[in-house]
Amino acid sequence: MMCFLICGAVFVVAAYVYHEIVVVGQRCTSSVKLHGKTAIVTGSNTGIGKRTAVDLAKRGARVIMACRSRERGEAALEDVKRESGSSNVVFMPLDLASLKSVRNFAENFLKSEARLDLLINNAGLFCEGRTQDGFGMMFGVNHLGHFLLTALLLDRLKESGSSRVVNVSSTAHNVGRIDFDCLNKHKALGLGSSMLAQLQIYSDSKLCNVLFTHELNKRLKGTNVTCYSLHPGAISIDFDRNMSRLLVMVLSPIFWFFLKTPEQGAQTTLHCALQPGLEPLSGRYFSNCTARNLYAKARDDATAKKLWELSERMCGLQ
Ligand SMILES: NC(=O)c1ccc[n+]([C@@H]2O[C@H](COP(=O)([O-])OP(=O)(O)OC[C@H]3O[C@@H](n4cnc5c(N)ncnc54)[C@H](OP(=O)(O)O)[C@@H]3O)[C@@H](O)[C@H]2O)c1
Per its UniProt record, what InterPro entries does this chain match (predicted)? Predict the structure, then answer.
């Protein structure tokens, strides 16, 4: 009996230590205040984006919640105001699956906001389908919409002093590849609809985020804008949005053990956005609040440039 109790206690302590060190990981330690600064967070009505918005608002930033659904965006706006204690938070509609919506958002933003200090390209999805402009959904939303958004806001970022662009990617980019033939022919990173094919396309879109950051950094040389990409960790997304209460109760301990909360998942985004002195690491990829080395394909100059030029053509910027 004694032996059983000791083994049980050792297991609980080991599980706790594993959870704290491996799952939860590092936190953003910056105490930077953001009064007078403006931040955009895409996809901030839920998950990591919402937690990022709360943190930035608590630090005094004016936070623009750029979300596709007015209903979900405005409901989240009230939560973010309440949780941060700040009323300097606004909702602006942005559907990254529509280049017209991206252009409208940028136009509204540039008309109504004098500065932009932080652009957090956080929104992302994993699903089949096509955007309003006929692009593969994951390519269109996870990469192309953010590409156009960044391009349209770049001058405002440059005018605002030392500003940062943070692109939320994923460790899945490691298995990504960019099939330019498929992109040119079909406006998509891949065509399959099996789960495996969709996972591949998601990973490809996340590789686009890393390559975009790589090329953006080169094009920002000589300006005071810097950029970063990152993996937030494996996060328990707002799973009770679509699950029964019973399933949520059963799965909660398992999710607790293996997955970060969205608040923990926001830490690397916040580190990249706020850590003082990070500028020499512009263009780099972060995980667990630490700069990581990339495989050659994720820092390949020629691929990054080709993707940039193709993205410009696809967005009508050339
Ligand atoms: N969760 C993870 O374990 C994990 C791991 C690695 C990387 N990531 C990356 O982290 C980022 C945030 O993910 P999350 O876990 O917080 O996911 P989430 O809870 O599903 O939130 C995704 C956000 O993106 C928004 N979005 C989707 N399509 C959009 C569109 N067309 N236009 C504008 N916004 C759109 C969603 O809006 P709606 O609410 O309207 O759908 C939502 O606000 C994503 O880029 C994701 O790829 C997540």
Answer: NAD(P)-bd_dom_sf, SDR_fam
